[in-house]
Amino acid sequence: MGQIMRRQALVLCCSALLAGCTVGPDYEQPELLLPDTWQEVAAADVVGEAPPLATWWEAFNDPLLTSLIQRSAQESRNVVLAAARVEEARAIRGVAKAPLFPDLILSGTYTRTRPSENGAQGQIIEAIGGEPGEVSENFQAGFDSFWEIDLWGRIRRQVESADASLQASVEDYRDVLVTLFAEVAAAYVDVRTAQERIRFARENVELQSESAQLTRDRFNAGLTSALDVAQAESNLANSSAQIPTLEFELEQAKNRLSVLVGVNPGTLEDVLAEPTGIPIPDPTVAEVLPAELLRRRPDIRGAERRLASQTALIGARKAELYPSFSLAGVLELVSGNSSDFFTGESTQWTLVPGVRWTLFSGGRIRNQIRVEEARTARALAGYEQSVLLALEEAENSLVGLQRTRVRRERLTVAVDATQRAVELVRTQYLSGLTNFQNVLDSQRSLFDQQDQLAVTEGNAVQALIALNKAMGGGWDVDAVEAMAASATQQADSVRAGAQLPGTAETGSNTSGSGGS
């Protein structure tokens, strides 16, 4: 009975030795104190269902904008670069995981030798009764194997770090999409805003051309002085001079949009040629609470994953303080004759259990641990800073959206009033009730206010785009997390079903909460 118990205890000890433990801190997502609500509330006076944040651009009801965003997701070089970084991180994760398994190397040689009859080897052969210069053959094949037993979790911590880095690269990919969609929409709005400003400029040039012709006719009829003609022509020339600048801004916006979509400048000229006005989206806005930004924004999620990756490296360094155990072996078949190459007599093997423990390194290992701890502190500060910047961006976007809406409403009223003033002062000028200076002032004011209105309408839409970007719009977080949870369950079941000794993952070897 005692012998059976001793055997059971020995089995348990060996199992514990193979399973190992994981040294170093276990990652936990930091808890941050965030406000419950925003200082500014977007669209508080609007009743209606907000559009989905994942496809916020659909609220613009502009098929061309939607097609450009979809095209950019496929052809933008920024997306290609981000996807390549994900593949790189996935391969690095595979490299980090490889040491959990034994290295197995197959080798084989065939040697055919004829020694010199006059050399030392030939003389030795002759001395023992052999024939000098006889050709000999040697066949050799075998397996070399090496396996480091991950007793203290050094390799598992590195895999944990690589897992988190891979997740961070995926979040960076999503962040590229969020930024790209916002930039495509912003460039598209810039195009439509420039076209609208050009339209107003040309309308005012036409109006001022009529006024200039009117002054010439009245001057020829002796009803006014040459001063009115000169002032009218000066005003007309000044307004006309604004159009080339606006056309240059339009071309810049088109070229910027082309590059964002992933095509050569000028490719989109035909589809953007017809001015369709600045797209006015639905008034409702999908708001996200401050705490929800941690879940929605890919840049915050990526910073949190990088913190998790860096935290795991502390444990990988600490494991170097402890002895490492390895198991090496060689199995070979060696024969001088091919006929008996696969017989038992040709077999030779070597088994080499090993241990390596750094007893003194001049403080190198402990200083490396301090390096990783300092980098982790830096990653934590970066994560917290990214949250603060996200809150700032969201608050500024909310304020900008509200203020530009108010400004647009007031400018609309001003433009309507100035248009009526232009008609009235023109009538009074023709009736001789006012001088031409009032006509010039009213026309200049109309041009300026119409231009400001076009710019403000564009800014209002840009503010909405910035708000959707600040809220992390552009991808479906719920769908992604559901897919990630399903993938995690499948991976866990696979690991539970087939797990090698020494690769067991305990509760301490997790990537932490907050990842996907």
Keywords:
single chain; 516 residues; alpha+beta; 4-stranded antiparallel sheet; 12 helices; 61% helix; elongated; disordered C terminus
What can be said about this structure in brief?
The chain is of the alpha+beta class and 516 residues long. It is built from twelve helices and four strands; from the N terminus they run αααβαβαααααββααα.
Order of helices and strands: HHHEHEHHHHHEEHHH
**What's the overall geometry?**
elongated
Radius of gyration: 38 Å
What's the helix count? 12
Distance between the termini: 51 Å
Q: Describe the main β-sheet briefly.
A: 4 strands, antiparallel
Q: Mean pLDDT across all residues, rounded?
A: 83
Approximately how much beta-strand content do the residues carry?
5-15%
Largest sheet: spatial strand order: 1-2-3-4
Helix content: 55-70%
Secondary-structure content class:
alpha+beta
Low-confidence stretches: 8-16, 494-516
Give the total of beta strands. 4
